[in-house]
Design brief:
about 325 residues, mainly alpha, 10 helices, about 0% strand
Length: about 325
């Protein structure tokens, strides 16, 4: 049997190169998605009068600030690294006219809502509308960050086509966000939003397992909440699979044969699909289990598998783009 080692080597190399970005994407999008999840869970708890939803929302909110700290550290480190490699990038991060200023504003709005939301859970126990409003502000700040990041990337790469070292546009930073991005930008933002919820739920499964002994709410609590978290991870992931497949099909156009004739592309997408399906199997088994805590190893491994799946998906997309160029 002749094993194609070179395509495998290329796939592994490109996936390894994408792994740091996949880690940053996971932390960033999970941080954005977790407040959305927490607010909906808190509203559900109030509507259904089930305390377990409220406790789960409280735990997800605690995770949110951990993720925002990780996300800020990752982006800050990336900014420092790339600024040293390309000193002209520093102006994009500090110039008051830079579109990046809007990202700082949306990040500030998110934290302005999330910090009091996290630490006023008991104080505002009898004033749920106000507490939910704080969480909603935090969630909307995160969603706005997705739109802002999409516009910044679109603007930056458009300028980079004209010059390898694009200068910050001599316009007030807010003018870049007065119009919606095109179809491609909206599609990308939509996929990011779906991924944010899937990543947040995946991280929540790991968080509940790690905090099992510290926040021991009893066997009934974990029997109830772990399947809830698994469903939150499963449904957006399936939707993400469909959306990603549609985008890849759109990129290929008439060259759809490249998906299976180009071995690095086929291996990358196939590996990503396999890893994602393994995660889906873990979540389905957890949902159907009478003792979901027995699947804690799978829930703990799911974030790693999701990050690897994201890295290989990006590697396949990059390989496909290079093949079409």
């Amino acid at each position: 049997m002749n094993i194609p080692m070179e395509p495998i080597r290329l796939t592994a190399m490109m996936s390894a190169q994408m792994l740091p970005k996949a880690l940053v994407d996971f932390a960033t999008l999970a941080a954005i998605g977790a407040p959305i999840m927490a607010v909906i869970l808190e509203i559900t708890a109030k509507a259904r009068k089930k305390i377990f939803f409220d406790k789960l929302a409280q735990q997800v909110t605690a995770l949110t600030l951990v993720l925002y700290l990780l996300f800020t550290l990752c982006l800050g480190s990336a900014a420092v690294f790339f600024s040293r490699q390309m000193p002209w990038l520093q102006d994009w991060f500090v110039n008051p006219a830079s579109p990046v200023m809007m990202f700082y504003i949306t990040l500030g709005i998110a934290l302005l809502g999330l910090i009091p939301y996290r630490y006023s859970w008991k104080k505002l126990k009898k004033n749920k509308p106000l507490h939910i409003m704080l969480g909603t502000i935090g969630a909307l700040g995160g969603v706005a960050s997705i739109h802002v990041a999409t516009v910044i990337m679109q603007r930056f790469f458009t300028l980079q086509i004209e010059s390898p070292n694009p200068a910050v546009p001599a316009l007030p930073f807010y003018t870049h966000f007065q119009q919606l991005p095109g179809k491609a930008g909206l599609c990308l933002a939509g996929i990011y939003l779906i991924m944010s919820i899937a990543f947040a739920a995946t991280a929540s499964g790991l968080y509940l397992v790690l905090r099992r002994n510290k926040d021991d709410f009893g066997r009934d609590y974990y029997k109830f909440t772990l399947p809830v978290v698994a469903r939150w991870a499963l449904l957006p992931t399936l939707l993400q699979l469909a959306a990603s497949g549609g985008v890849v099909y759109y990129i290929c156009g008439p060259n759809i044969a490249l998906l299976y004739s180009n071995l690095p592309v086929a291996l990358s997408f196939g590996t990503s699909l396999l890893l994602t399906l393994i995660c889906c199997a873990i979540w389905i088994v957890t949902c159907r289990s009478e003792t979901p805590m027995r699947h804690k190893i799978g829930l703990g491994l799911a974030p790693i598998l999701v990050i690897l799946a994201h890295a290989t998906l990006m590697a396949g997309t990059m390989s496909l783009y290079l093949s079409l160029s």
